[in-house]
């Protein structure tokens, strides 16, 4: 089994967001103040290695997760690929915003879902069952995500949406019951991306506040 340093490098280069929820052991490894025997902190070792590959170790603006970005001296082809990735990511903004809007309305809380938050399937199910508006939003979301097309109940639709968010790394199941989940720092990165698009391309959706995202990591692009 690869050591923690190697696993950090591998997952970061694969585009993973390392956080306390999704990868707790690796997140602790990166946030320890001192490395083995008081030597160079692990975060600095990882950052130095990535720099040799033309990459930068970056944190989300809320400091909840680490991810990998291209360095300023990246090759043109790498920049082109990054732009393709970004354009693809933008196409998924709408259903994610729709989910956040639905989830916020269901919990009657103006604060958007953030890294570390607990999400209970039963709470969502109960709210959807009691609201025609939420039921309609859920059905539309299922259509946009192209999941659970044959679902006959709102519970099946909710489970399909949650399963999608787990596959995409936005949620992590707590235990094995399939009813309790925690939000990962991939939401933090999403809010940073959303804020970036708002600032440079005029994109706006007043239903979602980037949760005081702070400085945007513009070196992504």
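^ structure tokens above, recovered residues below v
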């Amino acid at each position: 089994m690869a050591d923690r340093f190697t696993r950090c490098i591998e997952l970061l280069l694969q585009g993973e967001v390392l956080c306390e929820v999704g990868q707790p052991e690796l997140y602790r490894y990166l946030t320890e103040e001192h490395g083995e025997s008081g030597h160079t902190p692990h975060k600095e070792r990882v950052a130095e290695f990535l720099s040799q590959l033309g990459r930068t170790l970056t944190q989300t603006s809320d400091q909840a997760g680490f991810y990998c970005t291209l360095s300023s001296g990246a090759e043109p082809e790498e920049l082109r690929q990054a732009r393709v990735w970004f354009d693809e990511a933008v196409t998924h903004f709408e259903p994610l915003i729709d989910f956040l809007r639905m989830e916020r309305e269901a919990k009657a809380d103006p604060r958007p879902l953030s890294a570390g938050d607990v999400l209970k399937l039963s709470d969502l199910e109960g709210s959807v069952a009691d609201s025609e508006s939420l039921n309609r939003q859920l059905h539309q979301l299922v259509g946009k995500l192209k999941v659970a097309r044959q679902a006959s109940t709102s519970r099946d639709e909710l489970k399909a949406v949650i399963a999608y968010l787990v596959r995409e790394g936005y949620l992590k199941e707590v235990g094995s019951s399939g009813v309790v989940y925690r939000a990962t720092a991939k939401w933090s990165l999403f809010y940073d991306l959303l804020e970036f698009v708002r600032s440079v391309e005029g994109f706006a959706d007043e239903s979602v506040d980037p949760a005081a995202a702070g400085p945007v990591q513009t070196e992504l692009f």
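DSSP finds nine helices and six strands in the chain.
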